[in-house]
Amino acid sequence: MAITALLDLRLRAESVETAAGVLDRILRVTRNRPGSLGVEVLNDITDPTHLTLVERWESIADDDAYRAWRATPEGSSGLAEILSEPPRLWRCDTSATF
Questions:
Q1: Per CATH, domain 3-93 is 3.30.70.100
Q2: Closest by alpha carbon to 81, among 34, 7, 27, 19?
Q3: Which of 2, 36, 85, 92 registers the highest number of CB atoms within 10 A of its CB?
Q4: Domain ranges (residues) in the chain
Q5: CA 96 – CA 19 distance, rounded (Å)
Q6: What start-end ranges are recorded for coiled-coil regions in this protein (predicted)?
Q7: Minimal CA–CA distance to 79: which of 13, 6, 9?
C-alpha cells in the first residue's frame, strides 16, 4: 500500500536564504532511497519560513526504513541545523477512494 508522508518544517529566519541548497542536497538522496516515489516541496506563500515536504513511498515499511536510516550517523542530513523547531510528520494512506 502506497503512503504519503507530510513533513511540516519551520525554518530559522536566518536560514531562509540557504534552505534551498540544503534541501536540494537532502532531497536528492531521499528521492533515490528504496521505495521512494518522489518528493515535492510546498512553500507557504505567506510565510517564507514554512515548508511542507510531500513524500510518496511504496509502503510504510519503506518509509520506516528511510526514517530509521536518517536517524543513523550515516543518514544524518543536517536538516535540524536550519530549523527553528522539530519537524512534524503526518503519514497518510493514499489508497482510499471516496
A1: yes
A2: 19
A3: 36
A4: 3-93
A5: 34
A6: none
A7: 9
CA-wise closest residue to 34 among 10, 2, 64, 66: 66
Residue in this structure with the C-alpha cell 510504510, named with its chain if needed: 60
Instruction: Pull the grid cell for residue 70.
Output: 536518517
The model carries a pTM of 0.91
The C-alpha atoms of residue 71 and residue 64 are separated, in whole angstroms, by 11
Q: Is the dihedral of CA 3, 58, 73, 20 positive or negative?
A: negative
Taking the CA atoms of 17, 23, 24 and 25 in sequence, report the sign of the dihedral they define: positive
Beta bridge partners of 36: 57
Q: Which distant-in-sequence residues (6+ apart) come within 8 Å of 60 by Cβ?
A: 1, 3, 91
In contact, 10 and 86? CB cutoff 8 Å: no
